[in-house]
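User: Sequence in, structure out. Go.
Assistant: Echoing your sequence, followed by the structure tokens.
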Amino acid sequence: MDLYFPTELNAAAIRGVRFQEWNNDEHRFNLLKCTVAIPDFLFLFKSNPNPPVPAVPFVDLGYFRDRTENQTFEIIIQAGAIQHEISLNDYYAYLATLSQEEIMQQRLIDNDTEKPDILLSKRFSDGQTWITRRTGYKVWMEHGAFVVTLNLACNQNYYYQNADLFYYILSTFKPLYKPEYQLAERLKLVTRRYPVDFATYVPMSWHEVHHHNDTMDEMRACFTKTFKNQVSGALTINAVSMKQYPTSEAVLWEYLRPYFDKGFDFNTIRFQEAAVFEGFNTVADSINFTYWSGGNGIQYNLTFYLAHNSDNWFYVEMFGLAKVQDFDSWAINKRALQLLIQNFKTV
């Protein structure tokens, strides 16, 4: 079902609705304070001034409902603990799977994976179907990372009359206090001079291993992430002169050889062009494969980007558990790779 999903204000559709600007400025923590326009036919049912804790991983900062006997409209603003090194878009998709919600429409505000806007549908055991529009933002505080989420929900029978109202309310939702640092992740600088002069950032929790004696013609760097007391991902950054490896097949064979004994098939590579590294022509692929040992299979994901200019190859690779094997590990790896690409600059 293709539901109406407005992304622009329709003033005529909300004419006659009165709003009050609500905020939770009394909350204990500034970064969990937010503001939003609330229709006057809703009332504040409950609110919680405390942050999420392991025993209570989600708290309602503000829960608004209508005054009808058979409730048909509600707004829930929640704070929840989150593994901060995953994108909010991936987190909401995973949350929808856990709560058995179907994603009907979605977009990224400003094309940013930290600004998802998702329309969902869920059928409950009493036969009712509810439609929810969800967005939010991540913050980092001394106690960890949190996500502040706005949920706008109504009975499916009333969705079309409320769709433009949902969008307007969503457009007014914002934090009261913007953090000085705009990312929930803490990043560290990675630079090299030769053979490609570049700079980028990776999360602080990723540590460089296997130090390579770089030369004017080749550099290699590998960063690993420990999660759940095991290495959950390996992020590789390599650069090498074309004089050493004249073809893409030759350089890929060199870099991918370690995975052949894990079940990776070189012949499964299907290049796609990717406009990610400015000044380079880039191809990419992302491949899932299974490693069998003792009758048990572990599913891995290998994502790589192979770029070149007139003189050098530049190669970035992420290896770790596949999404179906361990969502958290996969999402952490994906976010680290995304941050490296977003922050890549040649000097």
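User: And one key feature?
Assistant: The longest helix spans residues 327-342.
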